[in-house]
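Example 3.
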Amino acid sequence: MKKLWQKNQEALNPLVERFETENDLLLDHKLTKFDVYGSLAHAYMLTKIGIISPKEFGVLRNSLKKILDLDKKDSFKLKFGDEDIHTKIENFLINDSGKPGEKIHTARSRNDQVLLNLRLFGKEKLLEIWGETLQLASVLNSLSQKFEEIPMPGYTHMQKAMPSSVGMWFGAYAESALDNIQLIKTAFELNNQSPLGSAASYGVPLPIDRQLVCKLLGFEKVQNNSLYCQNSRGKIESIIMFALLQITLDISKMASDIMIFTTSEFNFFDVNKTFTSGSSIMPQKKNVDIAELLRSKVHVIESYFTQIINITKNLPSGYNRDSQDTKKPFIEGFDLTSKVIEMAILLVANITPKKDVLKKAMTEDLYATEKAYGLVKQGMPFRQAYMEIGQNLSAIDDINPLESLKMSKHIGGTGNLNIKNTTRQINFEKKILNTKQKEYQKTIINLLNLN
Amino acid sequence: MKKLWQKNQEALNPLVERFETENDLLLDHKLTKFDVYGSLAHAYMLTKIGIISPKEFGVLRNSLKKILDLDKKDSFKLKFGDEDIHTKIENFLINDSGKPGEKIHTARSRNDQVLLNLRLFGKEKLLEIWGETLQLASVLNSLSQKFEEIPMPGYTHMQKAMPSSVGMWFGAYAESALDNIQLIKTAFELNNQSPLGSAASYGVPLPIDRQLVCKLLGFEKVQNNSLYCQNSRGKIESIIMFALLQITLDISKMASDIMIFTTSEFNFFDVNKTFTSGSSIMPQKKNVDIAELLRSKVHVIESYFTQIINITKNLPSGYNRDSQDTKKPFIEGFDLTSKVIEMAILLVANITPKKDVLKKAMTEDLYATEKAYGLVKQGMPFRQAYMEIGQNLSAIDDINPLESLKMSKHIGGTGNLNIKNTTRQINFEKKILNTKQKEYQKTIINLLNLN
Amino acid sequence: MKKLWQKNQEALNPLVERFETENDLLLDHKLTKFDVYGSLAHAYMLTKIGIISPKEFGVLRNSLKKILDLDKKDSFKLKFGDEDIHTKIENFLINDSGKPGEKIHTARSRNDQVLLNLRLFGKEKLLEIWGETLQLASVLNSLSQKFEEIPMPGYTHMQKAMPSSVGMWFGAYAESALDNIQLIKTAFELNNQSPLGSAASYGVPLPIDRQLVCKLLGFEKVQNNSLYCQNSRGKIESIIMFALLQITLDISKMASDIMIFTTSEFNFFDVNKTFTSGSSIMPQKKNVDIAELLRSKVHVIESYFTQIINITKNLPSGYNRDSQDTKKPFIEGFDLTSKVIEMAILLVANITPKKDVLKKAMTEDLYATEKAYGLVKQGMPFRQAYMEIGQNLSAIDDINPLESLKMSKHIGGTGNLNIKNTTRQINFEKKILNTKQKEYQKTIINLLNLN
Amino acid sequence: MKKLWQKNQEALNPLVERFETENDLLLDHKLTKFDVYGSLAHAYMLTKIGIISPKEFGVLRNSLKKILDLDKKDSFKLKFGDEDIHTKIENFLINDSGKPGEKIHTARSRNDQVLLNLRLFGKEKLLEIWGETLQLASVLNSLSQKFEEIPMPGYTHMQKAMPSSVGMWFGAYAESALDNIQLIKTAFELNNQSPLGSAASYGVPLPIDRQLVCKLLGFEKVQNNSLYCQNSRGKIESIIMFALLQITLDISKMASDIMIFTTSEFNFFDVNKTFTSGSSIMPQKKNVDIAELLRSKVHVIESYFTQIINITKNLPSGYNRDSQDTKKPFIEGFDLTSKVIEMAILLVANITPKKDVLKKAMTEDLYATEKAYGLVKQGMPFRQAYMEIGQNLSAIDDINPLESLKMSKHIGGTGNLNIKNTTRQINFEKKILNTKQKEYQKTIINLLNLN
């Protein structure tokens, strides 16, 4: 297929073309609908500034909707020669609608189209991840409540330290997920800037209305400086990917804990049988492979993040083709993170604390600090009490684990996990998200009904 | 010196002690004042819950202020045997104030002390970086305004693309710096949570008042779940370091541009002679080493970031000693980023666009798109106009570069860089920062006057 | 399909199964033939120790060859439920050959099968990369010879420094490619150890003959300690990937140079038109996208490398499922590196130095050092000569660039690039590789003819 | 102090100078002796080609030896203004020996001096690391022998898998250390090329004798192409750092194992009390901090490695000042790796397997595979035997762990760890190293006695 930039017979060497376009041919179909959205808004704006007639806009809109239909039926796939989704769509429009199709590219460049597409794609995916992260927080918070009164040894340096609870352990990850929401929000906000109109990187000598397309596409503001629009390619992606990295990092840590807690030596949790696999050689094995694979995924996401940072890092100003290689890690990063969150939710819902084992694990040494505090309460300075207990560990009597948990009643202690407050926060965040989702849906509906 | 945890004669093997503590011995003096602040708030709270008498608090406060004085005179340095700043301070307090010193460690652990110290250190440093980044944005924005009307070729794929201006180039980095402010704010906010009271990682069976120490230390909120407090060690640092990474990434990109623009082939900028170095072998050389070293620093910051992420990534829940190795990259990361921003400000203030060279560089090919738009204005569809100009490049007449710049008058185009708006934003952000700085200063003053 | 480890009705949760196996389902077909090779050798050895009868071996060999045939016709693809290639093959063998199929897994584990497969895959791919790297060195060396006498400015700090030549520039990359061969050889050697017999990670209580399978599969030696075999999973891959990283790093650097040298400001090379692309908006553009994409690929390979290192880094001893995630970067890393080398060879063969431009670029300042040496030859100490020339740069007379090049006649100077020696080295290395390739082919033939 | 390149009054802006030189001022004293060695060889060569008279060489040699003496007494430290060690040394020579000092820089550049210094530094340090790695292998191999007959559960997926032994566990790391020796050797070989004479990056128009300085400095060969010499800056360092990364990666993995094996739940090893630390809050704690800090160090080394790779990755050909930032991670990487190996050796020598605990840990499930093989020996196909045992795990009778270990008598099985062979290999490698060390010492002695 002819390229937009082909002015005569010399075609690109086919080996070179394959090398240059093969990633896009695989990935760009994920951007089809966003390219259509952008084209709709752009064409509408061109109408407003008199480049395209209202009638031509109608023709283009119909052709663009055909693409959406084909895409829904998975019939708009790219093949070798199509170069990228932008070329394919312009060629389709020219074939389908003639002259109006030849006008659509006025005042825009594929550089800002792809930038726009990635912003819209990022927005849609961030909304998904945002919801999934809240769901994870919600599930973890419920488990924290459910197991609030089940004692569990607390570890530091991987050694028994002080009394903890299964509730505290789940709650720690719930709160961390809520902090991650802040990273998602910052990424969402920085992504929510309209780059359209930056053209190749330096704007265009035409009186385009960037504010209008910004509004039509539902962005919060126009990203101002045209060159900055292009320079932020990769930057915004890396900020998004950093939020995903933190999400998967927490899940990896949780999976690491689960791996340790489900060894036969610790044996703290029972894992649903449909979540364990056996060995092809050892008849007795029941492995928690799912936790291992959740543990490892953070490294994959980190490598996507680093790839984006590294590609972006040393490029000079203005568009550079190298940026194309940030697409794959960006798109795959979202897919993988969604799967990881989904699996993490499934996993935590399918492990059950073994009360008896945990009770036995609450050995006396865990209460040494509490004992020292007993002496403190009788007036002994802590450092002396510490020494005394330290030299007489055997003097620790039997303690009721549950009562002990309840003694830590300060904020965030085992006796006061503050779960209701976390629930309130989660619900508050869900409302915010809900508003954003509705705004987005409304934007798309309005866009498709432009005339 | 005796360790807090030493209960009898067996000391740590000295080789092991050296290996374990040498980084802390070098770095912990940077945390001294923050450990004192935390100790003041903690001791005051212990008074309120009846562990320490008001009189004992007075004694401790005096001893703690002595430490501040010694620290100011650089006389509180750690030496081999001191282990870390927490041990050194408790030992000092016991020596200096006796029994009250033996009480100070009630209900706290070195684990939450270091966590707290790093939060306070991070807060103070983030406020500095925040200010420096705004200053950089401000300088860049002024240069954007100053050189708004100096044309410069705009590049894509490192090839001449369309007309740009020196003002657009500076402006792109100003806007990027403003986006970085959002990352700094998010990091600031997540860092602004009080971990004190998390103790070893699991809270304490004593009725401590975490809300009180939170308020005394000027944090926005208590970080709730005790285990999460410790699990967030490294996490918060990585979020901060990510903001620093983006700042240095922009500066590196700007330095890369400067390296290209100051080659003798491009020759767009004149660099102040006191900013260039020569060669020991080649008499004619004038190198812009400073730009090279600003270009490279992002890799150093990235390695600090990655180190923190990687150390944190695979650790199980609860405190682990590995975290100690995140201190060095965290502390050095701040120092280096401050220097990099300072140097970047110096550098951009010492390069001057060469008007004549830039004028000559505005060759006809840069106007090919503009010419095509000329045909578009006459009614020709863009794709046809593109073909026509593409096959007749020689037909491009002489164009007045400055007038051409002005034709891009859409938002963020060369004719409308929107500088006033950026100035407004910068001033707005300066006010926000100013408020934060004053709050922080007031908190510290109040803290030192507790009684 | 039933899993090898399924002992009764409980199947794995299908969502979990999809998450756990989806990468293997996509990638494992690349390992089919290697799994067959390993199975042939293993079965033969089981015959020698009396577990399988010679007749049963014959049956198994026929079934295994059927798999090879199916695989050649691309008819042995994995689908959901197949789990991995090892499971699929054992199930096929049991279906196809009955009882002998049920015996094939005696004394082995999927853990050592995958380890073995990756070694064999790595060997075959390393031989390919080895050859391609030599070809690249060879092409670069020829270009170095061809353009030995074309002067070109030499740059340091991106500023004109001293006279260089196009030949020296190409030659630098030829020599670097030869150093990379050493890394490939080390990787090849460490990969050339037979892990078969390590079983799950701890060997088997059966008198297997590991030396025999090692010999049959053409490995140089048995990797001894069974646990080390499994612990080296990821380690060997990272050593291989490091060699690929260096190869792509050189190509990225060369592409960076080409990007600079083909700017209109430098304009040193002419690029074959079928290697440049245009812009969809700017009619005049001719971009060297291929160089940009070669420049960026090193970051992709680096991310594969880092992924493998990071996954491997924190795992405890013995097999862990996390290792599965090292397969994708390992397999894709080879594919991508091969393409990158192929494209680099194509690119350098399609750029031509512009003699006239280069001649004009040989400005006087490049000869300042030579002039200082002129004074040195007259007896002036160098530092004085340097000062004198440095203060009188205008005194540099016109110099004949070519004669100047020839004056650097020391080893590796522009007048003595030592190309013949490099040619000799390349030929020597080609012979070594040729021997390895033949050995490998012979091994496979013998293996397929075992009886 | 005046810079070599200062031709008149304009000095570098002092803020810029501080930023540009501060790392070198801290680090370059580690290169002093190597700069002296290089200067000796270079001056001698200049004598042979008639630039310096034999008498002048004598003067220079004496001045250079003065520097060595000062350096030994730590009296040749750099201070602000000295720029770098090369400038400091030339200035010293000019002050100390007058005219000959002004000649020393003929035909060389600081660019190839620093390249040379780093090669010589790298050589000396690699010889140290090589020896330390062999010592680690040796200690681990001895422990493998010592504990060959102490059973220990073998784990896969962190679940009990099959019988292993403490000897197998130690032996796995011994063998891995031996593989690392191959990486050290490759790094040593690639580092063992003389770059001297590459000058700024493009050689010199003087008839220098590169082969002579190569021989005098003990390099194996001249690194040919002058430009490649400079382009290999960073490349060689990254190859060396990769070897260090693998060494620390193994130690980190071993430390991770130790952390798990010393939890109270596993409790497999007794750690010497002088290797554990307590807690400031919990009287009962005994933590193995040393293992945690060995576990974390790999991330520091990895960050050094990545820093070098990343700085080097995007630079164009020829010397760039960015390279300066590779010095710190390179130099610190060696120091840290040496300490890590030393500590690892100390740690493994101070942990003792707890025989009783380990014996109890050898539970029946570990023998399921062995039982299945029992049925195999009676003629049942393995897959059937597997099913039968899998459904009747309780049927596993008591087994003698030690006899069971001995049953795995194939190469690398628990009954045949092949320790003697490993010992032989270690001794063989020690001889190779010994030869290299002696060669190096002899080279230095000869160099100092040149006349």
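Residues 43 and 104 of chain B are 6 Å apart (CA to CA). Chain B is about 65% helix and 5% strand.
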